[in-house]
Amino acid sequence: MSNAITIHDIAREAGVSPSTVSRVLNGTAPVAADKRDAVMAVIKQRNYRPSAIAQGLAHGRTKAVGVLTQSIASPFYGEILRGIELGLMQSGYHALFTSGNWRSEEELAALDLLSGRRVDALIILAGIMPGDDLRHAAEELPLIVIGRSIAGMEDHCLCIDDEQAAYEATRYLIGLGHQRIAHVAGLSLHQDALDRRNGYERALREAGITVDQQLIVTGDYTEQSGLLAIEALISRATMFSAIFAANDQMAYGARLALYRHGLRVPDDVSLIGFDDQPASAYTTPPLTTVRQPTLELGQAAAQAVLRLLDGQQPMLTTCATELIMRESVVRRR
Asked: How far apart are CA 88 and CA 299, in angstroms?
């Protein structure tokens, strides 16, 4: 019933003009006490709830935060999106989601779509959109970036240290006696993929192990690409005792490929992933992986954008990672 009536109905019953009702609801101008009391009496009697969108427009805000993710279907991004929703909860703001699908032109189109919806702020999850476009968008709206560091916008970017996390994962394998360590990398368009590869190579060099390009295969962060990467490694007849995959999904595909070739994890090949997706604790065997705080990243981004909307500094810091040791890694025999 509350949404079946309009301000015109309230105005008629209260004996005032619709503009007076609007001023009472929005607080945009003083209203005589008797008229205000009459309007509030009708609102209470009819249990009227004004449209949040209409109120937002009246105040110059829509109470919407646009979120540009890379894939709605990705369990990794899905957990960050859940964190954003939790971070916005009870703030009066809600999230509008759209995908860029790791294509610059689609990301720009998605950004235009969100801007056209008159969102009050933006949260961008990684992506490959040129930094100039993000800097321009930040001039128009409060903006937080997750998973990328943009020159000139560092205090608005929320990241983890991908290179150091990959370095520590590779060092862990080296410490267990592995020297022939394969790497299933992400696409070079992704800065996090480059950083993880750099961390892997740095760990090898510091241990005096030559970086063998034959042990590096590029995937695209999907399970299928992890499977194909192992097929490529095996076809090269290059020996390896361990694999560091740049994300858990590729590690799942790698595990299947190894199984199909009669190679046991971890008895024959040790395996490490990256992300610590919820399913990684339930694979066979449970996957050793780098945990990045995906839910917390989303919550922190939401809280940062709310601070920006309130005219405050976002107060972002680099989020810590942790190597989660499970049963997919053993000491080199």
From this structure: 8
Per residue in 3-55, pLDDT (tens digit) is 467 777 888 899 987 767 777 776 656 788 898 899 889 888 888 766 554 55
Degrees (nearest 5) of the Cα angle 248, 302, 90? 120
270 - beta bridge partners?
A: 242
Report how far residue 78's alpha carbon sits from residue 69's, in angstroms, rounded to the nearest whole number: 9
Average pLDDT of adjacent 10-residue blocks, the chain of 333 residues: 65 83 69 87 80 51 88 87 94 90 83 81 89 87 91 91 97 98 93 95 98 97 97 95 98 98 97 96 97 94 94 86 97 88
> 162-291, superfamily in CATH?
Response regulator (3.40.50.2300)
Q: What is the pTM of this model?
A: 0.78
- Our CA angle for 134, 152, 68, nearest 5°, is 25
Contacts of 85 (CB under 8 A, 6+ apart): 95, 298, 302
Burial-class residue 204 by CB neighbours within 10 Å (0-12, 13-18, 19+).
buried
What residue spans define the domains of the chain?
A: 7-58, 64-160+294-319, 162-291
